[in-house]
Amino acid sequence: MYGKAFAPEYQGALTSLSVNSSLTDVLAAGTEQLRAAERAGSRQEAARSGLAVAEAHRRLGQVDDADRAWKASYRTAREAGDTGAMAWALWSGGTLARQRGALPLAWRLLRLAADLGERAGDVVVRGYSLAGMAETGRIQGDYEAVTALHEQLLAEARRRGEARHTVWALEGIAQIHRNTGSYDTAYAMFEEAADIAARADDRRGHAWALRGLADILSVRDGDSERALELLSEAEATCREMNLAGALAYNHKMRGNVLYRAGRYEQARDVYAQALAEFEGMEEPRGTALARLGLVKSLARLGRDRAETAADLEALARNLDGIGLRHGREMVLRAYEELGLVSPEGTGR
């Protein structure tokens, strides 16, 4: 039903690159091809190879380089009159904006990318851009608005037999179910995503699916050991492919699992590691979530209650600033969980 996963963002002379190629290899090949295209005066090829450079930088956590690369790719594509390449560059820029916590900008860039993709007749970049919009809305906590879009994209991906996009859509819908308490449904969808990714040789998608399964096993079943095993398996993939962002989120989830198991010293150390990784790539959402876990772990280890409350209040403002609708709810739950009185008067 599904073919082998492929990476449509590796274009032009770089189509031979695999979805599982190490990002350092992608960056080297993309940079070499970009320079060759510039020497040859081939703007279209320069725009397409520049896209791979932008995506490699982004996934490696090199956000300033990624920002310069996607903008250069867009300018070159516009000069070449290549609407499809313009759409792909905007998709990359929108994805980077979401990674950096600029969610309204992400939405605008991805909407433009989807429109240009439709105009160019490129159904793949249109689908990826709509998927990015759906993910942006999900991260913001606007589940009602984006659930239908997720399901539409899942149906389209299944119809085309596009494994990588099917895996992404399944994981997005599963995350919504997990966040709204439908753990069994979420587990089944993460499990299907993991199976499809494994058969299609989509190692990145498989690593994210394992992370989702580990989360459910921990929160629903209290099976921390199995959850940690799955996270270790996913971590190995992240390291082999140099997936900096995915690795940081893997570590943040490991902290969650350890915290739920009452292993607060270990959780503290892992959250601190994830926090440093997120800060290194200027990823504000991950930074805030890792910091929340760290604050909770330190509180469990006897940290001063007033200092904990002050940190939680600062985190609530931070999460509001990023635009996460459920961020304040997470902080309020932390107040209650730790027996603190929140500014809203909740807690004990």
UniProtKB/TrEMBL annotation:
Pfam families: TPR_12 (PF13424), TPR_2 (PF07719). Keywords: Repeat, TPR repeat. Gene3D superfamilies: Tetratricopeptide repeat domain. Signal peptide: none annotated. It comes from the Bacteria. This is MalT-like TPR region domain-containing protein.
